[in-house]
Structure formats: C-alpha cells, structure tokens
Model the fold of this input.
Amino acid sequence: MAKKKTLAQEFTKGLVKENPVLRLMLGCCATLAVTTAASNAIGMGIATTFVLVCSNAVISMLRNIIPDKVRIPAFITVIAGFVTIIQLLVKAFVPSLDTSLGVFLPLIVVNCIILGRAESFASKNKVIPSIIDGLGMGVGFTAALLAMGIIRELLGAGTVFGFPILANIMDPIVIFLLPPGGFFVFGILIAIAGKLSEEGHAPEKMGCGSCPMASTCTKIQNGEKEEA
Done:
C-alpha cells in the first residue's frame, strides 16, 4: 500500500516530479500552441489552474453521489461549467487574451490534465487534498508554460511580456515562434525536468516507489508492488 502523502507533498508533486506537461506529457497541444508569448502562457496557465481547483473540489464533494457508469460525462459537465465561467470572465475583462488564446480557451474542457486529475484523484479523495492537488498541478502547468513562453518570446522576438530585452542586441530567431522551435524548447525542458526528478537513475535503483503514477497504480493498490 502506497504511503499517504501530506498536503505539502500533494502540492509539490505537480511542480517537477509529476509535472503534468514535462513529466506526464498531458496537455501538450495547448502547451505548444499558446507559448509563443509569455503573456499567453501565463493567461492559459491561470485559466487552467482555476478550472483544475474548482472542478477537483466539486467532483470530490460529489464523488459518493455520481454513479460510476456516468462519471466521465458528469466530470466533463462540471469541468465545462467552470470553463464557461473563466471564458466569460476573460472575454469581459481581458479581451486581448481571449483573442490570443482563441479556440484553446474553450478547449480546456477536454484538457487531459483536468479530466485526468478528476478521474485519478478528485473522485477518490476528500475535498481539501483534491483542491491542493489541483492547485499544485495548475502551478506546475503554469510554470512549464511560462518557461516555454519566456524562452520562445525572448529568442523569437527579443521581448518578454512585450518589453524589449534582446531586440537591440541581436536579430530575432523567428523559428522559435514556429512549431519546430516550440518542439525544441519543449524537448529541452523535458530533459531538465527529468534530470531534476532523478529520472536518470539506473534501473536497479528504481521501482514502483519512484514512478510518478505510483499513487494511482492498480498493482500497488493490489499489493503487487515491484521490488527495487
């Protein structure tokens, strides 16, 4: 049986060790599409974090009420409600961000990160841990997007949040604003996240305990934990 994590551990796991983008490879489409500018990245990150926290809380509260056979449609309905709220708020108060994010803002409804946390965590845990889990995953997602957005905007346009940094020092490397540049930066950040989470340990030093999905693994829950 996996050891129960503290609230601090539930929050910090999403920052690096189980970062939804750089370690679990979820939400990659939106990540590559909106990170051409740091402002877009942080806007998408905040919107996704809001939906993560709120949907996790509601799904956790209803976990004993929602029938198992209709849990996925129920989760999507809850998520869609909060996505509609954040979309209307963005349209009302930050219309330029709504234009920049385009279709990727409403597509938060089908973001694998949010549905994945609802299915694997919020539907099996109490409200407070579910909120902390959503917050940690959201912060990790935002940090990954922001890192990509800053690097791509800095090298591709010479600016960060629209302020000129390298514009008068070097010519912009426009490829960083294009898909190939996005994949290049993405790969570099994945390698860094893997190194920080000690993914490079030799196989004999690794076991179920070091797996990012250990808390939801059916083998561990059934007492079939792999020996290191």
Notes: The beta strands are 159-160, 163-164. The longest strand covers residues 159-160. The chain is about 55% helix and 0% strand. Residues 200-206 have pLDDT under 50 and may be disordered.
